[in-house]
Amino acid sequence: MNATAPIPQDGTTNLDMDGLSRILFGHAAFQYLNAACELGLPELLGKKEGLTREEIRDALELQERAVDILLLGCTSLGITIKRDGRYRLAEVIESLMDQGDWQRFKDTVAFEQYIVYEGQLDFTDSLRENRNVGLRRVRGSGRDLYHRLSENPHLEQVFYRYMCSWSELANRHLAEKLDLVGCEHLLDCGGGDAVNAIALARANPDLRITVFEIPASASIAEKKIAQAGLGEQISVVTGDMFRDPLPTGCDVVMFAHQLVIWTPEENTALLRRAYEALPEGGRLVIFNSMSDDEGDGPIVAALDSVYFASLPAEGGMIYSWGQHEECLRAAGFRSTERIPFPGWTPHGVIVATK
Ligand SMILES: C[S@@+](CC[C@H](N)C(=O)[O-])C[C@H]1O[C@@H](n2cnc3c(N)ncnc32)[C@H](O)[C@@H]1O
């Protein structure tokens, strides 16, 4: 299989047999990536000139057949490059390492492996029934994935590591492009481990931030805020954003990686609650991945939607910019602004005003 053959990314590209085979064996391609990460192959190769098969075998403590399989897969997929009998890393992985994003990428791989993989086995049924059938594979009785995580400590750890890393891959742009001059108090609804609150607090030292989280996850945020030394600037309030009153006194409400989880009706209900909590002129910020209004990409938005369809909650997907804007209008907001972010994740921000 040709590792460089493009996977069609829009409705105009003709899928060939090579591309179709890559989709057919997509799960196996991912397993090579995951195994390389778990075995430490990228770190071993690092910036080296190249290691032989035998050096890799010995360093990773693999048997002959196992190292042959690993290198066959990694090399045919382009994760490793073989030249003159020596293996080195793909340039794209080297640059993730150079940028300090490699651990963040690996946290995303672990999330796909330990949380997404099993749940998406129910993707077809989830489409048929228009609900997250895959949640049945996560132990517990909570009404959604988030209300089950504390019953599954390993999953909880994998989830919040990933959530932190996935946010950090994009929140450097959030901190840079979101103009909060003149804003006093931001409410981060469903703020997770406070990763985005911490980034915004550092970028805006005069801004107060309240993270609103369910009781089961609030302690994770409290710990991270204390570690960052930002306890004076960021506070945590526990509650259910669908049922409890939102904390008052904020002039900005942010939903980060939040409005990809719920149905459009639930998103509109959340936005209405935020609208009611905001003063006239107050701002609403949606920060997450977005799909194109044409409904044909980008590919990361499309592939990530399998998770949102199958697992976390009854509705959800990587909605288009336009779908979010429709919910904002239905909730009463006027003037919306789109800010697409650069980078390989399809992140962006929509800012709306009351
Ligand atoms: C996908 S995570 C996003 C976390 C964080 N905003 C980020 O971008 O990294 C969704 C978060 O929403 C929280 N959450 C889910 N349902 C909630 C509810 N009803 N009320 C408050 N928070 C909720 C979850 O506990 C989880 O931490």
UniProtKB/TrEMBL annotation:
It holds the Pfam family Dimerisation. InterPro entries: COMT-like, COMT_C, COMT_dimerisation, SAM-dependent_MTases_sf, WH-like_DNA-bd_sf, WH_DNA-bd_sf. Residues 124-334 form the O-methyltransferase C-terminal domain. The keyword Ribosomal protein does not apply. One of its GO terms (biological process) is methylation. PROSITE patterns: SAM_OMT_II (PS51683). One of its GO terms (molecular function) is protein dimerization activity. Keywords: Methyltransferase, S-adenosyl-L-methionine, Transferase. Gene3D superfamilies: 1.20.58.1390, Vaccinia Virus protein VP39, Winged helix-like DNA-binding domain superfamily/Winged helix DNA-binding domain. This is Methyltransferase domain-containing protein. The keyword Cytoplasm does not apply. Residues 23-92 form the O-methyltransferase dimerisation domain.
